[in-house]
Design goal:
alpha/beta, four-stranded parallel beta sheet, disordered N terminus
């Protein structure tokens, strides 16, 4: 039935033609399938861009969302789910750039992406649009938090039944951020990799559309829009260097794919772009493989505050290492303490409050600069993928307390003098 629906809804201007194995090249029908039957390699969407009929002008005339790039996405009809996702700000950094000694630093700020304040809204919008075309009425996901928020919210908008799975020790903000949309929420006693294994069994048993399992080939394509938007927002040019967080590795590989597709379509001029990735030391299987020059990933047990990127057995880790190597990039990891400092640094210099994944990325950016691995003149884009309001626990106890005063001028003056004294002490510590 699924296959029949897929064929029935395919339209003449759709550019995607098949699912193709990244390892052996075997091709499959455009159905809900994510693993090759021959070699067990991952499937991804194959396109025929000879069908493309886009220009810079036609894209700019489109919706102010990811759907301005619809012909590059695996949706067969114009009945896609548009909740205003995408076209988040690309901020030219001033104070953070000066602090780090960079001249051309940009911040792609998906901390304000709609509707749930993370980049996951992009992938879910694409996945659920395709799920609806394939006839699914119940959608689901395995999530470290942001994906559960996005799936629950966009399913509610689309009128789809929703059941999402998360680790039981997730941050309160992310639990609340899913429950508010009234999905069935399953808190599993285990880490993300255990949640994911359970969800694979549920997907096979119940026949639901799991955005990051049986719908993964379509879902992952939504991340390409972070590449498209940066190229468009830079005046139809590619950057010199990008720094992005690594969880499964999919985001990293799809930004790379997005840049290359824009070059293939003639929308931007091709040039080398260096790709650098960021992980937390408490869950850094991709960084370890890169550092040890391995072409395979050794799974690890996550132990970090950066729960949104704490995937111990990353599905696309090998491909992320390959991209970093062939683009002369880097993959680094940072401690939880450095992640907290990264969150604070971005907030106090640029007014952007990011969650732990963003703190990881900023901390790795700083580490790469200090190691001389980023040229100050490079046009560098750092990807901030989620909002700090979701992970407030990470910085509690590290950002000070308010001054409690009486409603009297002299009480205020005393507190103001105390605050200035504390500021002077902090600067003295920095200078030391």
């Amino acid at each position: 039935m699924t296959q029949a629906i897929a064929k029935q809804t395919q339209t003449a201007n759709a550019t995607f033609t098949a699912l193709k194995c990244k390892e052996c090249g075997a091709e499959y029908e455009l159905e809900a399938k994510h693993v090759c039957e021959l070699c067990f390699g991952p499937l991804e969407v194959k396109y025929d861009f000879s069908r493309l009929s886009v220009t810079r002008e036609s894209i700019q005339a489109g919706p102010n969302s990811i759907w301005r790039y619809r012909q590059f996405l695996p949706v067969a009809t114009d009945n896609y789910i548009d909740v205003g996702t995408g076209m988040s700000p690309l901020v030219k950094s001033q104070r953070l750039a000066r602090r780090l000694g960079l001249k051309n630093l940009y911040i792609k700020n998906d901390a304000v992406n709609m509707p749930t304040l993370s980049f996951k809204d992009r992938v879910v919008s694409v996945a659920l649009s395709r799920a609806r075309e394939l006839g699914f009425t119940t959608v689901s996901c395995a999530s470290t938090g942001n994906l559960a928020n996005s799936t629950a919210a966009i399913a509610a908008y689309a009128g789809l039944d929703c059941c999402v799975f998360i680790p039981a020790d997730l941050e309160a903000g992310k639990v609340l951020g899913s429950l508010i949309y009234s999905p069935t929420l399953m808190a599993v006693q285990g880490n993300y990799d255990q949640v994911n294994r359970l969800c694979s069994e549920v997907a096979n048993t119940h026949g639901w559309g799991f955005v990051n399992i049986n719908l993964r080939p379509y879902y992952s394509e939504g991340s390409k829009t972070l590449g498209y938007e940066v190229a468009e927002q830079l005046g139809w040019e590619l950057p010199d260097h990008i720094v992005a967080p690594l969880a499964s590795g999919s985001l990293f590989t799809k930004i790379y794919k997005g840049f290359n597709e824009f070059v293939e379509a003639g929308l931007v001029e091709g040039k080398p772009v260096r790709f650098s990735g960021a992980q937390a030391e408490g869950c850094s299987p991709i960084a370890e493989a890169f550092r040890e020059k391995r072409d395979f990933i050794k799974p690890v047990k996550p132990n970090t505050i950066a729960k949104s990127i704490a995937i111990g057995n990353p599905a696309d880790g090998v491909y992320a290492v390959e991209i970093a190597n062939k683009t002369n990039g880097n993959i680094e990891s940072v401690t939880d303490a450095e992640i907290i400092e990264g969150i604070k640094l971005l907030a106090e210099t640029e007014g952007i409050f990011t969650e732990t994944a963003g703190g990881t990325t900023v901390a790795v950016l700083k580490k790469l600069v200090e190691a001389g691995k980023i040229d100050p003149d490079e046009k560098t884009v750092v990807y901030i993928t989620g909002n700090g309001l979701k992970t407030q626990e990470a910085v509690q106890g590290y950002i000070g307390e308010p001054f409690t005063i009486e409603a009297k001028l002299d009480s205020f003056e005393q507190a103001l003098e105390r605050s200035r004294t504390l500021d002077r002490l902090e600067w003295q510590q920095v200078l030391v």
